[in-house]
Amino acid sequence: MIRLGISIVTYAPNLALLTQVLAQLGQALRHARQHDELIEARLILVDNGPGSGWREPLQQLLETAAGSVPFELLSGHGNLGYGAGHNLALQRSAADLHLILNPDVLLEEDALSVGLAFLAAYPEVGLVTPAVWDPAGQRQYLCKRYPTVLDLALRGFAPAGLRRRFQARLDRYELRDQIGDALFWDPPVVSGCFMLGRQASLAQVGGFRPEYFLYFEDFDLSLRLAAVTRLVYVPQIRIVHWGGHAARKGVRHISLFLRAAARFFQQHGWRWW
Which pTM does this prediction carry? Predict the structure, then answer.
């Protein structure tokens, strides 16, 4: 029987979507309890702003949408960044396992049951990552090979015609030949929108590096976790993810993306093509 910590970091969230996220999280937690996979769960929502005006609506939303899940709202600290926000929750958690969850991710009802059971069966595994679809029902490929500068440029900024010319390369980067309906052990990097891991493994590597304000904090964490434990793609864990597409979010996000990419390559090694 497992104790689970859950953290969600928000910045001006879509409250209607977050309400749905919390409702489906509650359903997944009830399913896990009914199948004797879970004894206790606690949610920490980290409010990164902007400003102080989000505390009250988030508190009200948690009181109405979190159901029977014990929760805590951390607010008033300003925008620390995505990874540093999750670190606040990790530092306050005494659970066995921890779920790092985006505020735009919807869980299938049995997602947590499957993930908790898998980690119980494979003690050598420190983190599992799910099968992901977008709201239109298209599969997303969020496990990746180690990126090159060319991969990132093509995927994020190239026009559609040029991307089509390099489609085989991009498919290889996204592990499309291996990410499907079978387990895939030791993916090089995984997405941070849903990370279900052992608290001890996350603590061993110090959680997220706070210098990654936004973007690439998950790639960095993946590589550091892989040095001390195993990561596994488990396709029976199913989620819907509404986010992504940094290049479509404006100049500020593109700037944050480029700075984070440069930091990642400086720390882990440059690969140009």
Answer: 0.95
